[in-house]
C-alpha cells in the first residue's frame, strides 16, 4: 500500500462513509465516518490542547527524512535593518539585521530527526445505506476541551503554504471546491494557503517545505475502503515537532455528490495536512468540521479555528528600541511579547555573540497595548556593565515555556573608557526661617539625563532633588544638555549651620562633594498684631487691625472665628505706613473686613497665621451684640 511507503509521516485520514442509497429521485448521499488505529481500537481524542507553546523555525535545527532520503531545510533568516519604536505612536514590528552570531534560532537544538509516529489510518468504507439524506451519528457527545485535537506531538505548522494540485482524473472539476475550501481556511487568519496555477504531473520525490499536495485517487494511500485522507509531514525544530508540508487525497466518488460535500471533504483533509486530528465531540454547541462521523458543518467551526490558531507559528515579536553608552556600562530598552498565546516572554541580550543577560519583558508599555490590545506589561529596560570598547549588541525575544526565540534587533555601541565622576557647582546658599536653601548645577559626564543632588546639614542627610531645571549656560560649556540646574530648600534648626551638597553618580559610582556653605538659620518667631476695632452694624460686625510675621515682610492671613467656629480668612495686606515706621517690615500688613451675623450676642476672635508654619497666635477676642 502507498501509505507504507511514506516513511516517518503522520497520517490522519477522513474516511467519510459515502452511504449510497436509492431514492425516488435517484442517488441520495448519506455520510458517516468511523476510524480505528492499526490495532483496531478507536483512537483517543485529546480533550485539551498540549500545554507546550507552538514553536518558531530554526535556521540550524531542521532536517527531514522521507522514503529513506534526508533533506536539510534552508535557513530562515530575518531581513537586514532594524525598525525602532518611535517615542510616541504605535510600536512597529522590527525587521532586525542578520546577526553573525548567535544563529537566528537561539539556542540551537541538537535534535534534527523527523518524528516517528504510528500511522493513524481511517478504516470504514463505501457501503450501501438506507434511503434518504445524511446518516445520523450514533450516540451523544459531550463538550470536550477547546474544541480541537492535534495530530501526534505536532506543536505548530509552517503557517504559509502553496497548494499544488496533482494531475489526476477530475482534478479540474475539483478546483472550484478547492478554492472555496482554501478561502474558508484562510479566513481564520491562522494559516495562509495559496493555490498554485495549473497542475503538476506528480508529487515531488521529496516533499518541499511549505507545500501541500492534493490528488484525486481511486487507490487508497491509507487503507480501503475510504473517501478522503490527509497527512502532515513533520520535522523536529527547536526540540518541537513542526508540520512543514502535507498531502491530501479524495476519492472520485465525491463527484457523485454536490459541491458542499466536496468542499467539506477537502477542508477536512487539508486540516489533517496542517496538523489537526479528529475531534469527535461537540464544542460550543456545535459539531466541528474535523469530526470524523458527522456532516453538520460545511465550514470550519469555532473549535476547528481554535486548533488552527494553536498551530499558528507563534514567533515572539518585539523591538529593540534603544542602546546607549552610560560609561562602563550600556543601557538597553524595548518590548517583546508572545506571538499568540500571551505567555511570559524574556529577552536575551548578546554582546559580540556571547550571552550577556536575560531580562523580563514585564515593564509598562501602554503604547504597545494600544496597538496589540494584549496588556501594557511587555517592556524591558536595563543597564549592563561592560568594559570599554566597541560592541554589537543583539536582542532576542524568548518564550519562557519553550526553546523558541526571535531576533528583534542588533545595534552597535562604544562603551566609554570610564565611569566619569559627576561635576557641578553650588552657586548660592542662604538661611531662612528654620530652612536652608542651596542652588547651582550638577551633571554626570556619562549621560545627558538629569541626576540627583543630596543635601546634608551639619553632616546629617536633610533632603534631595533632581537637578533638572534649565541651564543653557551649562549646556554651552559641556554639551550635555541644559536640564542640570537645581534649587533645593531643606528644613534646618535655627543657628549657624554647615550645608553640604553631593552629586549622585548614575547608575553607581563615586558621589562627589560639590561644596559646603555656612548659613544662618532663623528661628521661627511668632506673628504679632492688634485688633484696633470691632464694631457692629445691622446683622454684621466689622473688624480692623494689623498683623505681621517678624521673619518675613510678606503679608499674612488672619482667621476669623465666630462663637468658637471658623468663619473666614482675610488677608492682612492693607497699606499701613504707621506699622512700617514702627516695625520696618513693610507697610502691607493692615486688615479690615465685615462679617455677616445673625442678630444677637456673638464672640469674635482673630488669629494671625504663621508663615510658612508654626504657632498661630490669638490677636484678641471681643463680644458684641449685633442688632437686627
TrEMBL record:
Keyword field contains Signal: yes
GO-annotated molecular function: metallopeptidase activity
Region span, Disordered: 31-122
Bias type Pro residues, positions: 88-106
Gene3D superfamilies xref list: Collagenase (Catalytic Domain)
Ligase listed as a keyword: no
Keywords: Signal
Signal peptide: 1-32
Biased composition (Polar residues): 59-72
Bias type Low complexity, positions: 37-47
Source organism superkingdom: Bacteria
The protein's name: Peptidase metallopeptidase domain-containing protein
Organism: Lysinibacter cavernae
Amino acid at each position: 500500500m502507498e501509505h507504507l511507503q511514506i516513511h516517518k509521516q503522520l497520517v490522519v485520514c477522513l474516511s467519510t462513509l459515502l452511504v449510497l442509497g436509492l431514492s425516488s429521485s435517484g442517488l441520495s448521499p448519506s455520510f458517516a465516518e468511523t476510524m480505528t488505529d492499526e490495532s483496531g481500537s478507536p483512537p483517543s481524542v485529546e480533550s485539551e490542547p498540549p500545554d507546550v507553546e507552538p514553536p518558531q523555525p530554526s535556521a540550524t535545527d531542521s532536517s527531514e527524512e522521507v522514503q529513506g532520503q534526508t533533506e536539510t531545510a534552508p535557513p530562515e533568516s530575518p531581513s537586514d535593518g532594524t525598525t525602532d519604536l518611535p517615542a510616541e505612536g504605535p510600536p512597529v514590528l522590527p525587521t532586525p539585521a542578520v546577526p553573525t552570531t548567535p544563529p537566528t534560532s537561539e539556542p540551537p537544538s541538537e535534535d534534527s530527526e523527523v518524528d516517528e509516529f504510528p500511522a493513524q489510518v481511517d478504516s470504514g468504507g463505501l457501503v450501501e445505506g438506507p434511503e434518504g439524506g445524511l446518516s445520523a451519528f450514533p450516540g451523544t457527545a459531550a463538550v470536550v476541551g477547546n474544541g480541537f485535537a492535534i495530530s501526534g506531538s505536532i506543536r505548530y505548522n509552517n503557517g504559509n503554504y502553496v497548494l499544488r494540485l496533482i494531475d489526476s482524473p477530475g482534478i479540474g472539476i475539483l478546483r472550484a471546491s478547492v478554492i472555496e475550501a482554501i478561502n474558508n481556511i484562510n479566513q481564520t487568519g491562522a494559516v495562509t494557503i495559496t493555490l498554485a496555477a495549473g497542475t503538476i504531473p506528480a508529487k515531488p520525490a521529496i516533499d518541499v517545505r511549505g507545500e501541500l499536495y492534493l490528488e484525486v485517487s481511486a487507490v487508497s494511500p491509507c487503507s480501503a475502503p475510504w473517501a478522503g485522507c490527509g497527512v502532515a509531514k513533520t520535522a523536529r525544530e527547536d526540540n518541537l515537532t513542526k508540520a512543514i508540508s502535507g498531502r491530501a487525497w479524495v476519492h472520485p466518488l465525491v463527484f457523485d455528490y454536490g459541491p458542499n460535500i466536496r468542499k467539506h471533504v477537502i477542508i477536512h483533509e487539508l486540516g489533517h495536512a496542517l496538523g489537526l486530528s479528529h475531534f469527535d465531540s461537540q464544542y460550543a454547541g456545535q459539531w466541528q468540521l474535523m469530526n470524523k462521523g458527522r456532516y453538520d458543518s460545511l465550514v470550519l467551526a469555532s473549535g476547528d479555528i481554535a486548533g488552527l490558531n494553536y498551530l499558528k507559528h507563534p514567533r515572539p515579536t518585539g523591538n529593540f528600541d534603544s542602546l546607549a553608552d552610560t560609561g562602563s556600562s550600556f543601557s538597553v530598552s524595548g518590548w517583546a511579547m508572545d506571538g499568540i498565546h500571551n505567555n511570559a516572554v524574556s529577552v536575551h541580550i548578546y554582546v559580540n555573540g556571547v550571552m550577556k543577560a536575560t531580562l523580563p519583558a514585564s515593564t509598562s508599555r501602554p503604547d504597545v497595548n494600544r496597538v496589540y490590545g494584549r496588556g501594557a506589561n511587555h517592556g524591558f529596560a536595563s543597564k549592563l556593565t561592560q568594559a570599554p570598547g566597541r560592541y554589537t549588541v543583539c536582542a532576542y525575544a524568548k518564550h519562557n515555556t519553550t526553546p523558541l526565540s526571535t531576533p528583534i534587533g542588533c545595534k552597535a555601541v562604544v562603551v566609554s573608557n570610564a565611569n566619569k565622576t559627576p561635576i557641578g557647582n553650588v552657586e548660592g546658599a542662604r538661611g531662612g526661617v528654620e530652612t536652608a536653601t542651596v542652588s547651582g548645577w550638577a551633571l554626570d559626564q556619562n549621560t545627558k539625563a538629569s541626576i540627583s543632588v543630596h543635601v546634608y546639614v551639619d553632616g546629617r542627610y536633610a533632603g534631595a532633588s533632581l537637578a533638572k531645571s534649565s541651564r543653557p549656560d551649562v549646556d554651552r560649556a559641556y554639551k550635555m544638555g541644559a536640564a542640570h540646574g537645581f534649587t533645593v530648600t531643606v528644613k534646618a534648626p535655627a543657628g549657624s549651620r554647615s550645608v553640604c551638597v553631593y552629586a549622585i553618580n548614575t547608575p553607581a559610582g563615586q558621589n562627589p562633594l560639590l561644596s559646603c556653605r555656612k548659613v544662618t538659620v532663623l528661628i521661627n518667631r511668632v506673628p504679632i498684631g492688634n485688633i484696633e476695632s470691632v464694631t457692629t452694624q445691622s446683622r454684621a460686625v466689622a473688624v480692623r487691625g494689623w498683623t505681621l510675621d517678624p521673619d518675613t515682610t510678606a503679608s499674612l492671613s488672619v482667621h476669623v472665628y465666630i462663637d468658637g467656629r471658623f468663619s473666614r480668612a482675610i488677608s492682612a495686606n492693607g497699606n499701613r505706613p504707621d506699622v512700617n515706621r514702627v516695625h520696618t517690615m513693610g507697610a502691607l500688613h493692615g486688615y479690615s473686613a465685615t462679617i455677616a451675623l445673625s442678630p444677637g450676642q456673638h464672640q469674635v476672635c482673630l488669629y494671625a497665621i504663621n508663615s510658612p508654619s508654626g504657632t498661630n497666635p490669638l490677636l484678641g477676642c471681643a463680644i458684641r451684640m449685633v442688632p437686627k
